[in-house]
């Protein structure tokens, strides 16, 4: 592998990693605090991409697309939590998996009814459409670098909110021991609704950033959901820090696995990584529950 | 004493046919330390859980400070002034002692959702937290992560968390459980200091501590109160002796 290819693939890996982190952050907190498995998280990713594509088609402004799509995704998340998922906190994981899998089908069909089966075009903003020249003559798409920067900024922001603010203190307490947090006067359900909406906003953000790179189409949320679940489990359920580290491991591992190994083996790399890490640390890298 | 701070009437709780709380009525007076004793399985912890809000009763009523709280969620009861220490030590292991208590201190703030305020630099939280740690004698350990504290220190930390909520009523579920003689005596001394300022409902197996601390004692057997009285009267009550104290001679 030439040095320039190595640099390019490393950047690709980190960029996939930050995308996965945006997805996994919401997933891991929802699972950690309310013990809810939400397979429909990928649908929020898809929703973000479709909202952005529509606004972009109407206004030709990527900035406006972001400004509309992120809050819209949060609203969709808040609605789903309020209308459906709230009734499933006390139910078994199997019930939760079934209802959220059902939600995936509903979301996919709603999107098919509104937007059709043909991918909707979403191109990167003009300012970021070209390549950037890096050291050593490496060229790299500006938009992918921008994704990397946005992901890193969001990760930093989340870290500050979760580890240094009052709401973060509540989130960590709720994720660690829910009855105890309630006994101390934390309205865990309110905190959870906020976390769910914030997680939906981040999933929407990830989806709209992925749009110009992949394709805005029905079912785009499922492959990334699987990777995000892997990240959640490896990182330790409920741990933001774990999600960040695991997302980078999976992003880089998946990217290099696909480049260096034969295709059949390459797509297995992350699952072998997951098995190895779980054999070594069954509760993930940064376990939250004692 | 100016009337009950906590009043329980006809409380009922069943688990799949097993009666855990059976038409239970009990008053805790303002400023009183009220001990709850009874054999294992009498329903003491179940009662505490219903008072704190972790469990919802099947029937009856609980009123606290003049308001009916039977259906209130746990977090609102905490804000009304009910603090509970758990039977099994329950602190947040990854937080420092001070952070644990600061989390508890935010409960007494009745208004203002200052979500994004920096929690560890917020003196509105850290000052009362430090005071509570000092009261309990744990101030020198403020910056130690809870999982590195000894068992006795964690029980103290739990108590400090309850105090930081500035409660009107402390529900203490076996605060001496698992403590050695020395730690137990130390805890009794701490509680003796606290009873001046708080109404306390104390569940405890250590009879020396119960008779040293309690103003009144209620005896719980099979989910119902069979006797309530001052410690001397309870000690000499024949029904209580038969049901509970008997095996201790």
Short description:
Chain A has 290 residues and is mainly α. Chain A has twelve helices and two strands. In chain B, α3 (97-105) crosses α4.
> What percent of residues of chain B adopt helix (DSSP H or I)?
25-40%
* Spatial strand arrangement across the major sheet of chain B: 6-7-8-3-9-10
What does the average pLDDT of chain A come to? 89
* Tally of domains of chain A: 1
The most extensive contact between chains is:
A-B, 25 and 37 residues
Distance between the termini of chain A: 43 Å
N-to-C order of helices and strands of chain A: HHHHEEHHHHHHHH
CATH topology of the largest domain in chain B: Rossmann fold
Based on the structure given, which CATH architecture of chain A is correct? Answer: Orthogonal Bundle
Written overview of the protein:
The complex is a heterodimer of chains A (290) and B (249). Chain A has helices at 3-34, 41-59, 62-83, 93-115, 142-164, 166-176, 178-183, 188-210, 221-235, 240-260, 263-266, 269-280, and strands at residues 131-133, 139-141. Chain A has 290 residues and is an all-alpha fold. Chain A is built from twelve helices and two strands, in the order ααααββαααααααα. With 249 residues, chain B is α/β, with parallel strands linked by helices. Chain B has two domains: 1-81 and 168-249, Rossmann fold; 91-166, no CATH class. Chain B has nine helices and ten strands. A six-stranded mixed beta sheet of chain B has the order 6-7-8-3-9-10, sandwiched between helices. A four-stranded antiparallel beta sheet of chain B has the order 2-1-4-5, covered by helices on one side. In chain B, helix 3 crosses helix 4 (123-136). The longest helix of chain B has 14 residues, at 123-136. Chain B is globular, with a radius of gyration of 18 Å. The model of chain B has no long low-confidence stretch (mean pLDDT 85). Chain A binds chain B through residues 161, 164-170, 172-173, 176-177, 179-189, 288, 290, and chain B through 52-54, 73-76, 78-79, 83-84, 86, 90-95, 99, 102-104, 106-108, 114-120, 122, 125, 147, 161, 165.
């Amino acid at each position: 592998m030439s040095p320039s290819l190595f640099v390019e693939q490393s950047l690709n890996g980190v960029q996939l990693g930050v995308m996965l982190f945006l997805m996994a952050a919401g997933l891991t907190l929802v699972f950690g605090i309310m013990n809810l498995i939400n397979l429909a998280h990928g649908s929020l990713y898809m929703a973000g991409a479709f909202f952005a594509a529509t606004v972009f088609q109407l206004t030709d402004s990527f900035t406006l697309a972001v400004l509309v799509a992120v809050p819209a995704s949060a609203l969709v998340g808040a609605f789903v939590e309020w209308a459906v998922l709230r009734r499933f906190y006390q139910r078994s994981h199997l019930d939760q998996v079934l209802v959220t899998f059902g939600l995936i089908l509903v979301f996919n069909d709603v999107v098919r009814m509104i937007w059709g089966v043909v991918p909707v075009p979403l191109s990167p903003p003009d300012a970021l459409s070209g390549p950037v020249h890096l050291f050593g003559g490496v060229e790299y798409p500006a938009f992918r670098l921008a994704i990397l920067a946005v992901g890193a900024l969001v990760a930093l922001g989340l870290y500050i909110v979760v580890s240094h603010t009052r709401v973060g203190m509540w989130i960590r307490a709720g994720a660690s021991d829910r009855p105890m947090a309630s006994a101390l006067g934390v309205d865990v359900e309110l905190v959870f609704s906020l976390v769910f909406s914030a997680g939906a906003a981040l999933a929407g953000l990830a989806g709209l950033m992925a749009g110009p790179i992949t394709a805005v189409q029905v079912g785009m949320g499922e492959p990334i959901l699987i990777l995000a679940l892997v990240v959640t489990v490896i990182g330790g359920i409920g741990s933001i820090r774990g999600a960040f580290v695991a997302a980078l491991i999976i992003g880089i591992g998946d990217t290099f696995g696909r480049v260096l190994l034969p295709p059949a083996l390459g797509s297995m790399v992350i699952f072998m990584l997951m098995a190895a890490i779980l054999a070594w640390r069954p509760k993930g890298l940064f376990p939250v529950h004692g | 004493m100016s009337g009950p701070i906590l009043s329980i009437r006809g409380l009922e709780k069943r688990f799949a046919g097993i009666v855990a709380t059976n038409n239970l009525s009990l008053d805790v007076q303002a400023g009183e330390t009220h001990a709850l004793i009874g054999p294992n399985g009498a329903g003491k912890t179940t009662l505490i859980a219903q008072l704190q809000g972790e469990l919802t009763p099947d029937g009856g009523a609980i009123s606290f400070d003049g308001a009916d709280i039977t259906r209130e969620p746990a977090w609102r009861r905490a804000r009304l002034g009910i603090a509970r220490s758990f039977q099994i030590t329950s602190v947040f292991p990854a937080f420092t002692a001070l952070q644990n208590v600061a989390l508890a201190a935010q409960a007494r703030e009745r208004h203002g959702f200052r979500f994004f305020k920096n929690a560890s630099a917020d003196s509105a939280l850290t000052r009362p937290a430090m005071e509570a740690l000092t009261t309990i004698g744990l101030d020198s350990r403020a910056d130690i992560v809870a999982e590195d504290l000894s068992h006795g220190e964690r029980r103290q930390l739990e108590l400090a968390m309850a105090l930081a909520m500035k409660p009107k009523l402390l529900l203490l579920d076996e605060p001496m459980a698992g403590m050695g003689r020395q730690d137990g005596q130390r805890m009794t001394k701490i509680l003796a200091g606290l009873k001046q300022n708080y109404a306390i409902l104390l569940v405890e197996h250590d009879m020396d501590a119960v008779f040293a601390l309690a103003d009144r004692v209620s005896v719980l057997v099979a989910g119902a109160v069979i006797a309530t009285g001052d410690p001397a009267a309870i000690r000499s009550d024949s029904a209580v002796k038969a049901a509970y104290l008997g095996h201790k001679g």
